[in-house]
Structure formats: C-alpha cells, structure tokens
Design a protein that fits this description.
The protein is 37% helix and 11% strand. With 215 residues, it is α+β, with helices and mostly antiparallel strands.
Length: 215
C-alpha cells in the first residue's frame, strides 16, 4: 500500500516552480517539507516534478571524452574547495535528519529516526514496544482500523502470524477497530477448533499421514 495521494495546491506548485532551478532534489525536498509542514521523500517529490514538467536544470552525467580536472593528481582538490569541507561531527543539511524525524515510506508506513547516523524504525513498532516490551517472535503489530498513519497505541494490535493468516482469509480485518479486535478472537476460536480436529484425527488414526487443517 502506497502513501495516500497528495493533491498539490496552487501555492505548492508555484513554490516548486520558483525554487527548483539549480537546487538538488534533496535540498528542494527539505525546503518544500519545511514550508508546507509535510514529510515527502526525495523520490516522491521528484516524481511530482516530472509530472509538472519541472527540472532543476542540473546535468551530473560524466560525458564520454571528458577529462576529470584532477586526473593523475592523487589526493588533489581544487583550490579553495577546502572551504566546503565538513568539520568533524558536522552533518550535511541536505541529507541529515535529527532523531525523532518522521517520514512516510513507499508502502504508507510512518518511520521515525531513532538514532544517529541512520537508524530508522517503524513508528507503530516503536510505540507498541515502548508500552509493552519487545514484540514476541512470530508476532506482528497491525493497525486495528487499517490506517497505517494511525499510530495511536489503542489502534495497535498484536497478533500472531497464524492469527493474521486466518484474519486475512476470513475477511476479519475491518476499518472499524472494534470489529478487527473481535475478528482476532474469532480467528483464535477457528484456530483452536482446527487444532482440536487435527488432534482427534491423529488419536483416531495414529498411522494416518498428518494433513493440514482448514480454518
């Protein structure tokens, strides 16, 4: 599932038209997000620029036959370039984000930066684990109302992968969080019934090859 579509306003388009020339897409994305309070990724904004027919005018390709200015000069840097060198501990503003920054990935999940320099985690997992501890092996956290942007704790539901399979097959996941939580209980009952049936068949026919039960 991708991020929800964004309808660009006239003000947003004018901003892009005015700011795009000569800027890197990373820099433009940062300016755009800051100006309109959004959290677009570079790739998402780049795609929008293509639809609007906008380009930054940069051509970073190294064309055939072109000779690099520092060819044969090991360790050479153009005079004056040292002014642009990063100081120890400095983070480039176009790529670095502070801890706590949130973005929406291509699948529509919110990710939050939890540690420097580049540690990002899914926000819903961070919130659930902060309240309940580490997610048990073989389990996942889902959104009760199906909205991946709703990371409120009461909307996060821990289910086993077995429960999730049954809920998906039986259509027990709803836009109504309460119905989804009830659906998990129904899935538990179906799993229990299937396991009891398998146990009964095994006791009745101990030599019979075990078959997978149906939920």
């Amino acid at each position: 599932m991708r991020a929800p579509p964004h309808k660009y306003t006239a003000a947003e388009i004018r901003f892009l038209e005015k700011k795009v020339a000569g800027r890197s897409y990373a820099e433009l994305t940062e300016l755009f997000n800051r100006r309109f309070g959004l959290s677009f990724t570079v790739d998402r904004l780049r795609g929008a620029l293509g639809r609007f027919g906008l380009s930054n005018g940069r051509d970073c390709r190294f064309r055939p036959g072109r000779i690099s200015y520092n060819k044969g000069k090991k360790g050479y840097c153009a005079p004056g370039s040292e002014k642009g060198w990063f100081k120890p501990g400095h983070m480039p503003s176009s790529t670095w984000r502070p801890v706590g920054t949130e973005v929406i990935d291509r699948d529509g999940y919110v990710k939050v930066k939890t540690r420097n320099p580049r540690t990002w985690k899914f926000k819903h997992r961070v919130i659930w684990e902060r309240a309940h501890g580490k997610i048990p092996r073989g389990h996942v956290v889902i959104f009760a109302d199906g909205n991946r942007l709703n990371t409120n704790l009461d909307n996060l539901l821990l289910v086993s992968r077995k429960e999730l399979v049954v809920m998906n097959k039986q259509g027990l996941i709803s836009a109504d969080g309460g119905l989804t939580k009830a659906g998990r209980m129904i899935a538990d009952i179906k799993i229990l019934i299937a396991e009891r049936k398998r146990g009964a068949k095994k006791r009745k026919n101990p030599q019979r090859r075990k078959k997978d039960g149906e939920y």
